[in-house]
Write a structure and sequence with these properties.
Elements (H helix, E strand, L loop, with lengths): L4 E6 L3 H11 L4 E7 L3 H11 L2 E3 L2 H7 L4 E4 L9 H7 L3 E4 L7 H4 L2
Parallel strand pairs: 1-2, 1-4, 2-3, 4-5
Length: 107
């Protein structure tokens, strides 16, 4: 492998923690950033994983060169994060499916 895979976590609740801990223990993967709109949750998880803490998703994407992004948000909170990650060449993962409609695919 040429280098470690740089992972980001969006959502520092239970699912974010679960995925973050697995990634943290995975050889060849480094969790470099955690983002949540609740600063306290983001700070606790980022400290536990040795990652940078963000409260702004867009700022995290601007500052970090992510290879993968785990989107650990409830379905109602998905608002373009999948597409924004893909534009930065980070591979987005979400347990709720990464589907987009035909209109979105044309962008």
């Amino acid at each position: 492998m040429a280098g470690e895979i740089r992972a980001g976590i969006l959502g520092a609740g239970g699912m974010g923690r679960s995925h973050g801990e697995v990634l943290h223990e995975t050889e060849g993967v480094s969790v470099v950033a955690v983002c949540d709109n609740c600063h306290e949750n983001a700070q606790i998880l980022s400290d536990d994983l040795g990652a940078k803490c963000y409260n702004s998703f867009n700022r995290m994407l601007e500052k970090e060169k992510l290879d993968i992004l785990y989107i650990c948000l409830p379905p109602f909170a998905h608002n373009g994060q999948f597409e924004a990650a893909a534009v930065t060449h980070a591979t987005p993962f979400t347990r709720h499916g990464g589907w987009i409609n035909i209109k979105q695919a044309g962008k």
